[in-house]
Amino acid sequence: MSQLLVDSDYLDVNEAAIYARRHPGSIRRALRAGELHGSQTKPGGRYSIEPKCIRDYLAGSLCEHRQNVTQLGRAKKALAS
Length: 81
Fold this sequence. Notes:
Elements (H helix, E strand, L loop, with lengths): L1 H5 L6 H8 L3 H10 L5 E2 L6 E2 L2 H9 L4 H5 L3 H9 L1
């Protein structure tokens, strides 16, 4: 089943949790903390996670997206302080 999930273009939180053998809440926490890269169409919306991002997260390395992008939310908080 994991191979089927990885062949998809994007995974949702539940699919990523199955692939990673983690609880969906753990995946959401990693996304919010910036440890795992995912995208949302709107704030509070569903996450879409590329399979290569979840593989990099499990390997403990940065995916190519996180290497080139700063955390927007953290940058805004820093500017507000």
